[in-house]
Amino acid sequence: MVRKSNIDFLKDEEKLRLIAAIDQAAVSIIMTDIDGNIQYCNPAFEQTTGYSFEEVIGQNPRILKSGLISDDVFKDMWETIIGGQNWKGDLINKKKDGTIYYEEARITPVRDKDGKIVNFLGVRQDVSRRKYLEEKLKQTSIRDPLTNLYNRGYIFERLSQCLEIFKRNGEGFSLAIIDMDFFKDINDTYGHQAGDFVLKEFSEILTSGIRVYDIAGRYGGEEFILILHGIKKKTSAKIIKRILEEVRNSAFAYENKEMKITFSCGICDVLEIDKENLSIESLVYKADKRLYDAKNTGRNKIVID
Which positions make up the signal peptide (predicted)? Predict the structure, then answer.
């Protein structure tokens, strides 16, 4: 049964039949006037957003705005539809109860018999579940399964991005390579399960010790790699020294067996390498060489020169 409203377009019998069909649609559908005020919504819209038909009539779709989409997107949307073109895009909206959800939206101008735009028809599909699964799959592809740190491939991808940003606007960063000292002895003495436990515990200390915008990854085996944004090697060394001290003072206890851990680290920053030779390989080489120096001069230390 078609619900009553005071909107003009429902007076037309042909459009009444259309609205009756739209009422049964599984996707959210709204109709607005030329100023963007909602004149109609279907039951799927009510179910998705939590707003009732009566609550949204006369309101602007901005009531769903989450603040998570750039205003430029909405500017592009409005300029496109007011210019008579269809607009299609992804939105992050907010339900009545505050829940954030993802939508695929298509907005189409509706013209009268003289070709004048009189309404806008919006068709929206909730794709939150799909977005969640896509993000989960993405995280699986870029994370190390044991430590949940970023994997080697993703770290190199981010390094490439950091280099491009540096070349474009001079925003620097440091690269640190860490190797756990005598890790083979842990596996040989206590077993590989104990070794895995230590790697996971160590990764948590590493993650909690860096800043939220820095990046930690597992480089391979017992080696780890850090990208520290916006700071040179001396400042990076201070951060990593605090991590080293925490690791030294931590008791890695597995099945009543306590293990003491240290690590060696080599650090370089992007400003150390001339632009002609600057590359991921040159950065990794310099940090890796300093790691080698740390391991060959007593371990349990950080080398920056």
Answer: none
Mention the CATH class of domain 12-133: alpha beta
The whole-angstrom separation of Cα 129 and Cα 16 is 33
Asked whether 93 and 100 are in contact (CB, 8 A), the reply is yes
Question: Which of residues 11 and 265 earns the better pLDDT score?
Answer: 265
**Tokens 């020169």 sit on residue:** 305
**CATH 3.30.450.20 domain span(s) along the chain:** 12-133
How much is the average pLDDT of 173-180? 98
- Which residue spans of the chain are classified as CATH 3.30.70.270? 143-303
In this structure, what are the phi and psi dihedrals at residue 160, rounded to the nearest 5 degrees? -60, -40
Choose, from 104, 201, 222, 223, the residue flagged as catalytic. Answer: 222
Asked if CATH classification 3.40.50.150 holds for the domain at 143-303, the reply, yes or no, is no
Q: What is the pLDDT of residue 65?
A: 94
Confirm if 76 and 88 have CB atoms less than 8 A apart. no
Place of tokens 């991005």: 161
258 is catalytic: no
Mean pLDDT of 124-132: 93
DSSP label at residue 3: P
Q: H-helix or E-strand containing 157?
A: helix 152-169
DSSP assignment of 243-264 equals: HHHHHHH--EEETTEEE---EE
CA distances from 254 to 82, 106, 183, 192 (A): 65, 55, 15, 11
Q: Categorize the per-residue pLDDT at 258 as very low, low, confident or very high, splitting at 50, 70 and 90.
A: very high
pLDDT of residue 139: 83
Q: How many CB atoms lie within 10 A of CB 87?
A: 20
Position 14 scores a pLDDT of 63
